[in-house]
Write a structure and sequence with these properties.
By secondary structure, the chain is an alpha/beta fold. It folds into three domains: 75 residues, no CATH class; 67 residues, no CATH class; 161 residues, 2-Layer Sandwich (Nucleotidyltransferase, domain 5), CATH 3.30.420. Strands 5-4-3-6-7 form a five-stranded mixed β-sheet, with helices on both faces. Strands 1-2 form a two-stranded antiparallel sheet. A hairpin with a 5-residue loop joins strand 4 and strand 5. 22% of the residues are buried.
Length: 343
Protein backbone atom coordinates (compact mmCIF):
# COMPACT_ATOMS: atom_id res chain seq x y z
CA UNK A 1 0.00 0.00 0.00
CA UNK A 2 1.55 3.31 -1.07
CA UNK A 3 1.00 6.61 0.74
CA UNK A 4 2.67 9.97 0.32
CA UNK A 5 3.36 12.38 3.18
CA UNK A 6 2.94 16.11 2.65
CA UNK A 7 3.78 19.05 4.80
CA UNK A 8 1.65 22.09 4.01
CA UNK A 9 -1.47 20.78 5.72
CA UNK A 10 0.39 18.49 8.09
CA UNK A 11 -1.61 15.58 6.72
CA UNK A 12 -0.90 12.38 4.85
CA UNK A 13 -2.28 12.07 1.34
CA UNK A 14 -3.30 8.51 0.40
CA UNK A 15 -1.67 6.99 -2.68
CA UNK A 16 -3.67 5.86 -5.70
CA UNK A 17 -4.10 2.24 -4.54
CA UNK A 18 -5.31 3.24 -1.11
CA UNK A 19 -7.54 5.91 -2.61
CA UNK A 20 -9.12 3.35 -4.94
CA UNK A 21 -9.76 1.04 -1.98
CA UNK A 22 -11.52 3.88 -0.13
CA UNK A 23 -13.79 4.40 -3.13
CA UNK A 24 -14.54 0.67 -3.42
CA UNK A 25 -15.37 0.46 0.28
CA UNK A 26 -17.67 3.46 0.00
CA UNK A 27 -15.64 5.50 2.49
CA UNK A 28 -15.48 8.37 0.01
CA UNK A 29 -17.06 8.89 -3.38
CA UNK A 30 -15.23 9.05 -6.72
CA UNK A 31 -15.90 12.78 -6.83
CA UNK A 32 -14.34 13.29 -3.39
CA UNK A 33 -11.30 11.21 -4.40
CA UNK A 34 -10.91 13.41 -7.49
CA UNK A 35 -10.99 16.56 -5.36
CA UNK A 36 -8.46 15.06 -2.96
CA UNK A 37 -6.06 14.71 -5.90
CA UNK A 38 -6.53 18.44 -6.58
CA UNK A 39 -5.44 19.19 -3.02
CA UNK A 40 -2.49 16.81 -3.31
CA UNK A 41 -1.32 18.47 -6.54
CA UNK A 42 -1.65 21.93 -4.98
CA UNK A 43 0.26 20.85 -1.88
CA UNK A 44 3.06 19.49 -4.03
CA UNK A 45 3.53 22.51 -6.31
CA UNK A 46 2.01 25.37 -4.22
CA UNK A 47 0.48 26.82 -7.39
CA UNK A 48 -3.30 27.03 -7.67
CA UNK A 49 -3.28 28.13 -11.33
CA UNK A 50 -1.06 25.20 -12.29
CA UNK A 51 -3.42 22.83 -10.50
CA UNK A 52 -6.43 24.30 -12.29
CA UNK A 53 -4.78 23.97 -15.69
CA UNK A 54 -3.61 20.42 -14.96
CA UNK A 55 -7.09 19.20 -13.99
CA UNK A 56 -9.06 21.49 -16.31
CA UNK A 57 -11.06 23.23 -13.57
CA UNK A 58 -11.80 26.88 -12.91
CA UNK A 59 -10.05 28.79 -10.09
CA UNK A 60 -13.46 29.50 -8.54
CA UNK A 61 -14.17 25.78 -8.31
CA UNK A 62 -10.75 24.98 -6.87
CA UNK A 63 -10.83 27.69 -4.20
CA UNK A 64 -14.38 26.80 -3.20
CA UNK A 65 -13.28 23.24 -2.39
CA UNK A 66 -9.91 24.34 -0.94
CA UNK A 67 -11.71 26.55 1.57
CA UNK A 68 -13.97 23.67 2.57
CA UNK A 69 -11.20 21.07 2.75
CA UNK A 70 -10.18 19.66 6.14
CA UNK A 71 -7.27 17.17 5.75
CA UNK A 72 -8.47 15.30 8.85
CA UNK A 73 -12.02 14.91 7.55
CA UNK A 74 -12.26 13.72 3.93
CA UNK A 75 -16.04 14.07 4.08
CA UNK A 76 -15.50 17.82 3.59
CA UNK A 77 -14.76 17.02 -0.06
CA UNK A 78 -18.15 15.39 -0.58
CA UNK A 79 -20.89 17.23 -2.45
CA UNK A 80 -23.68 18.41 -0.20
CA UNK A 81 -27.36 18.13 -0.89
CA UNK A 82 -28.64 20.31 -3.72
CA UNK A 83 -32.16 20.22 -2.37
CA UNK A 84 -33.53 23.76 -2.10
CA UNK A 85 -34.12 25.17 1.37
CA UNK A 86 -37.69 25.97 0.48
CA UNK A 87 -39.45 23.11 -1.28
CA UNK A 88 -42.62 23.84 -3.13
CA UNK A 89 -45.54 22.31 -1.28
CA UNK A 90 -48.25 20.42 -3.19
CA UNK A 91 -51.22 22.62 -4.01
CA UNK A 92 -53.67 19.84 -4.91
CA UNK A 93 -56.80 20.21 -2.75
CA UNK A 94 -57.31 17.58 -0.05
CA UNK A 95 -60.69 16.71 -1.57
CA UNK A 96 -59.02 15.82 -4.91
CA UNK A 97 -56.25 13.83 -3.21
CA UNK A 98 -58.78 11.76 -1.27
CA UNK A 99 -60.82 11.13 -4.40
CA UNK A 100 -57.72 10.01 -6.34
CA UNK A 101 -56.83 7.63 -3.52
CA UNK A 102 -60.33 6.10 -3.48
CA UNK A 103 -60.48 5.70 -7.26
CA UNK A 104 -57.04 4.08 -7.35
CA UNK A 105 -58.01 1.67 -4.57
CA UNK A 106 -61.24 0.88 -6.43
CA UNK A 107 -59.42 0.36 -9.77
CA UNK A 108 -55.85 -0.66 -8.78
CA UNK A 109 -54.79 -1.54 -12.34
CA UNK A 110 -55.86 1.76 -13.92
CA UNK A 111 -53.23 4.39 -14.54
CA UNK A 112 -53.21 8.15 -14.15
CA UNK A 113 -54.72 8.84 -17.60
CA UNK A 114 -57.86 6.79 -16.96
CA UNK A 115 -58.28 8.15 -13.46
CA UNK A 116 -57.96 11.72 -14.77
CA UNK A 117 -60.84 11.05 -17.19
CA UNK A 118 -63.04 9.74 -14.34
CA UNK A 119 -62.21 12.79 -12.23
CA UNK A 120 -63.15 15.17 -15.05
CA UNK A 121 -66.47 13.38 -15.43
CA UNK A 122 -67.06 14.13 -11.75
CA UNK A 123 -66.32 17.81 -12.35
CA UNK A 124 -62.76 17.77 -10.97
CA UNK A 125 -60.45 19.30 -13.56
CA UNK A 126 -57.17 17.53 -12.85
CA UNK A 127 -54.41 16.69 -15.32
CA UNK A 128 -53.02 13.18 -15.68
CA UNK A 129 -49.58 14.35 -14.52
CA UNK A 130 -51.11 15.75 -11.31
CA UNK A 131 -52.86 12.42 -10.68
CA UNK A 132 -49.54 10.64 -11.17
CA UNK A 133 -47.71 12.93 -8.73
CA UNK A 134 -50.45 12.52 -6.12
CA UNK A 135 -50.29 8.72 -6.39
CA UNK A 136 -46.48 8.76 -6.06
CA UNK A 137 -46.71 10.89 -2.91
CA UNK A 138 -49.34 8.59 -1.45
CA UNK A 139 -47.20 5.53 -2.17
CA UNK A 140 -44.14 7.20 -0.62
CA UNK A 141 -46.10 7.86 2.56
CA UNK A 142 -47.43 4.30 2.62
CA UNK A 143 -51.05 5.46 2.20
CA UNK A 144 -51.58 3.76 -1.13
CA UNK A 145 -50.68 0.12 -1.45
CA UNK A 146 -51.34 -2.32 -4.22
CA UNK A 147 -53.65 -5.25 -3.38
CA UNK A 148 -51.89 -8.48 -2.49
CA UNK A 149 -53.13 -10.20 -5.67
CA UNK A 150 -51.57 -7.47 -7.84
CA UNK A 151 -48.21 -7.80 -6.09
CA UNK A 152 -48.29 -11.60 -6.38
CA UNK A 153 -49.17 -11.38 -10.08
CA UNK A 154 -46.19 -9.08 -10.74
CA UNK A 155 -43.84 -11.42 -8.85
CA UNK A 156 -45.19 -14.41 -10.78
CA UNK A 157 -44.56 -12.67 -14.11
CA UNK A 158 -41.06 -11.79 -12.97
CA UNK A 159 -40.38 -15.41 -12.03
CA UNK A 160 -41.74 -16.64 -15.38
CA UNK A 161 -39.40 -14.36 -17.30
CA UNK A 162 -36.92 -16.64 -19.03
CA UNK A 163 -33.30 -15.76 -18.28
CA UNK A 164 -31.11 -14.84 -21.24
CA UNK A 165 -28.73 -17.38 -22.68
CA UNK A 166 -26.25 -14.59 -23.40
CA UNK A 167 -23.90 -13.74 -20.53
CA UNK A 168 -20.92 -11.46 -19.91
CA UNK A 169 -17.64 -12.91 -21.15
CA UNK A 170 -15.96 -14.58 -18.16
CA UNK A 171 -12.52 -13.39 -17.11
CA UNK A 172 -9.79 -15.64 -18.41
CA UNK A 173 -11.66 -16.77 -21.52
CA UNK A 174 -8.86 -17.61 -23.98
CA UNK A 175 -8.92 -16.71 -27.67
CA UNK A 176 -6.20 -18.62 -29.50
CA UNK A 177 -7.78 -20.38 -32.47
CA UNK A 178 -10.06 -19.36 -35.35
CA UNK A 179 -13.65 -19.64 -34.17
CA UNK A 180 -12.84 -19.07 -30.48
CA UNK A 181 -14.69 -15.74 -30.71
CA UNK A 182 -16.68 -14.19 -33.55
CA UNK A 183 -18.10 -10.69 -33.09
CA UNK A 184 -21.43 -9.81 -34.72
CA UNK A 185 -23.18 -6.49 -35.33
CA UNK A 186 -25.68 -4.77 -37.63
CA UNK A 187 -25.48 -1.74 -39.87
CA UNK A 188 -28.55 0.24 -40.99
CA UNK A 189 -28.51 1.21 -44.66
CA UNK A 190 -30.63 3.95 -46.23
CA UNK A 191 -30.06 3.24 -49.92
CA UNK A 192 -32.97 5.39 -51.02
CA UNK A 193 -35.57 7.43 -49.18
CA UNK A 194 -37.97 4.48 -49.12
CA UNK A 195 -35.44 1.62 -49.16
CA UNK A 196 -34.06 0.69 -45.72
CA UNK A 197 -31.98 -2.46 -45.34
CA UNK A 198 -29.97 -4.03 -42.53
CA UNK A 199 -26.46 -5.33 -43.03
CA UNK A 200 -25.34 -8.09 -40.63
CA UNK A 201 -21.56 -8.40 -40.13
CA UNK A 202 -19.42 -11.06 -38.44
CA UNK A 203 -15.65 -11.11 -37.94
CA UNK A 204 -13.43 -13.77 -36.38
CA UNK A 205 -10.90 -12.27 -33.96
CA UNK A 206 -8.01 -14.61 -34.79
CA UNK A 207 -8.14 -15.10 -38.57
CA UNK A 208 -10.12 -11.90 -39.33
CA UNK A 209 -12.43 -14.04 -41.49
CA UNK A 210 -15.54 -12.06 -42.42
CA UNK A 211 -19.14 -12.86 -43.24
CA UNK A 212 -21.93 -10.48 -44.24
CA UNK A 213 -25.57 -10.65 -45.30
CA UNK A 214 -28.31 -8.07 -45.91
CA UNK A 215 -31.93 -8.32 -44.77
CA UNK A 216 -35.06 -6.23 -45.06
CA UNK A 217 -35.73 -6.34 -41.33
CA UNK A 218 -33.59 -6.19 -38.21
CA UNK A 219 -35.16 -9.12 -36.36
CA UNK A 220 -33.96 -12.06 -34.31
CA UNK A 221 -35.22 -14.37 -37.07
CA UNK A 222 -32.96 -12.56 -39.57
CA UNK A 223 -30.03 -12.91 -37.15
CA UNK A 224 -30.73 -16.65 -36.84
CA UNK A 225 -30.70 -16.95 -40.64
CA UNK A 226 -27.42 -15.04 -40.71
CA UNK A 227 -25.93 -17.57 -38.29
CA UNK A 228 -26.99 -20.39 -40.63
CA UNK A 229 -25.30 -18.55 -43.49
CA UNK A 230 -22.06 -18.16 -41.52
CA UNK A 231 -21.94 -21.89 -40.88
CA UNK A 232 -21.77 -22.47 -44.64
CA UNK A 233 -19.12 -19.78 -45.22
CA UNK A 234 -16.69 -20.00 -42.29
CA UNK A 235 -14.03 -22.72 -42.81
CA UNK A 236 -13.95 -23.47 -39.08
CA UNK A 237 -16.46 -24.14 -36.34
CA UNK A 238 -17.77 -21.13 -34.44
CA UNK A 239 -17.27 -21.77 -30.72
CA UNK A 240 -18.36 -18.42 -29.25
CA UNK A 241 -20.12 -15.27 -30.45
CA UNK A 242 -20.02 -11.79 -28.96
CA UNK A 243 -22.89 -9.34 -29.52
CA UNK A 244 -24.24 -6.05 -28.21
CA UNK A 245 -27.59 -5.79 -26.44
CA UNK A 246 -29.66 -5.29 -29.61
CA UNK A 247 -33.08 -6.95 -29.76
CA UNK A 248 -32.13 -8.63 -33.04
CA UNK A 249 -29.77 -10.85 -31.05
CA UNK A 250 -32.45 -12.20 -28.71
CA UNK A 251 -35.26 -14.76 -28.99
CA UNK A 252 -34.82 -16.72 -32.28
CA UNK A 253 -31.12 -15.91 -32.48
CA UNK A 254 -30.43 -17.00 -28.89
CA UNK A 255 -32.37 -20.22 -29.45
CA UNK A 256 -30.37 -20.95 -32.63
CA UNK A 257 -27.07 -20.31 -30.81
CA UNK A 258 -28.10 -22.46 -27.84
CA UNK A 259 -29.22 -25.33 -30.09
CA UNK A 260 -25.74 -25.35 -31.64
CA UNK A 261 -24.08 -25.24 -28.20
CA UNK A 262 -22.23 -22.05 -29.11
CA UNK A 263 -21.24 -19.76 -26.26
CA UNK A 264 -22.92 -16.34 -26.43
CA UNK A 265 -21.39 -13.28 -24.78
CA UNK A 266 -23.11 -9.88 -24.57
CA UNK A 267 -21.12 -6.68 -23.99
CA UNK A 268 -22.19 -4.10 -21.37
CA UNK A 269 -24.40 -1.20 -22.53
CA UNK A 270 -22.70 1.74 -24.25
CA UNK A 271 -19.45 -0.20 -24.76
CA UNK A 272 -19.03 -0.49 -28.56
CA UNK A 273 -15.23 -0.53 -28.19
CA UNK A 274 -15.53 -4.05 -26.73
CA UNK A 275 -16.87 -5.10 -30.13
CA UNK A 276 -14.10 -3.19 -31.90
CA UNK A 277 -13.27 -5.85 -34.50
CA UNK A 278 -16.75 -5.98 -36.00
CA UNK A 279 -17.12 -2.20 -35.64
CA UNK A 280 -14.01 -1.93 -37.80
CA UNK A 281 -15.61 -4.40 -40.22
CA UNK A 282 -18.69 -2.15 -40.48
CA UNK A 283 -16.46 0.81 -41.30
CA UNK A 284 -14.67 -1.25 -43.94
CA UNK A 285 -17.97 -2.27 -45.55
CA UNK A 286 -19.08 1.36 -45.67
CA UNK A 287 -15.85 2.67 -47.17
CA UNK A 288 -14.78 -0.17 -49.46
CA UNK A 289 -18.12 -1.63 -50.50
CA UNK A 290 -21.14 0.65 -50.12
CA UNK A 291 -19.29 3.82 -51.13
CA UNK A 292 -17.82 2.08 -54.18
CA UNK A 293 -20.46 -0.36 -55.42
CA UNK A 294 -23.82 0.45 -56.98
CA UNK A 295 -26.09 -1.74 -54.88
CA UNK A 296 -28.70 -3.81 -56.73
CA UNK A 297 -32.39 -3.01 -56.37
CA UNK A 298 -33.36 -6.46 -55.08
CA UNK A 299 -32.13 -8.23 -51.97
CA UNK A 300 -30.94 -11.14 -54.12
CA UNK A 301 -28.70 -8.82 -56.16
CA UNK A 302 -27.48 -7.10 -53.00
CA UNK A 303 -26.47 -10.38 -51.34
CA UNK A 304 -24.76 -11.70 -54.48
CA UNK A 305 -22.63 -8.53 -54.49
CA UNK A 306 -21.86 -9.08 -50.81
CA UNK A 307 -20.79 -12.67 -51.49
CA UNK A 308 -18.40 -11.49 -54.21
CA UNK A 309 -16.96 -8.89 -51.84
CA UNK A 310 -16.64 -11.50 -49.07
CA UNK A 311 -14.49 -13.62 -51.40
CA UNK A 312 -12.36 -10.57 -52.24
CA UNK A 313 -11.98 -9.72 -48.56
CA UNK A 314 -11.16 -13.25 -47.38
CA UNK A 315 -9.02 -14.41 -50.33
CA UNK A 316 -7.59 -11.33 -52.06
CA UNK A 317 -7.36 -8.31 -49.73
CA UNK A 318 -4.07 -8.25 -47.72
CA UNK A 319 -4.42 -7.46 -44.02
CA UNK A 320 -1.88 -5.38 -42.18
CA UNK A 321 -2.83 -7.04 -38.87
CA UNK A 322 -2.00 -10.44 -40.44
CA UNK A 323 1.38 -9.30 -41.82
CA UNK A 324 -0.35 -8.63 -45.15
CA UNK A 325 -1.72 -12.15 -45.47
CA UNK A 326 -5.32 -12.75 -46.44
CA UNK A 327 -7.60 -14.45 -43.89
CA UNK A 328 -7.58 -17.56 -46.11
CA UNK A 329 -3.76 -17.62 -46.22
CA UNK A 330 -3.56 -17.08 -42.47
CA UNK A 331 -6.04 -19.89 -41.81
CA UNK A 332 -4.10 -22.24 -44.07
CA UNK A 333 -0.84 -21.49 -42.24
CA UNK A 334 -2.57 -21.96 -38.90
CA UNK A 335 -3.85 -25.40 -39.97
CA UNK A 336 -0.36 -26.39 -41.10
CA UNK A 337 1.12 -25.28 -37.77
CA UNK A 338 -1.47 -27.36 -35.89
CA UNK A 339 -0.70 -30.43 -38.02
CA UNK A 340 3.04 -30.04 -37.43
CA UNK A 341 2.44 -29.87 -33.65
CA UNK A 342 0.51 -33.13 -33.77
CA UNK A 343 3.35 -34.87 -35.61
Amino acid sequence: MSIRATSTYGAIFPGSQYLSSLVRQGTISKEAAKRLRWMEHYDRYHNARLTCRYYGISPQTFYRWKNRYDPYDLKTLESGSHRPYKVRRPETPVKVVERIQKLREQYPRWGKDKLAVLLRKEGLEVSASTVGRVMNRLKARGLLREPENVRLAKLARKRRRKPRYAVRMPKGYTINSPGDLVQMDTLKLQLMSNDVRYHFSARDLVSRWDGARAFRRQTSFAAARFLEYLETKFPFKIKAIQIDGGSEFKKDFEEAVQDRQILLFVIPPRSPKLNGYVERANRMYREEFYEVETIGHTMEEHNKQLERWEHTYNHVRPHQSLDYLTPAEYHKLWLESQNSKRH
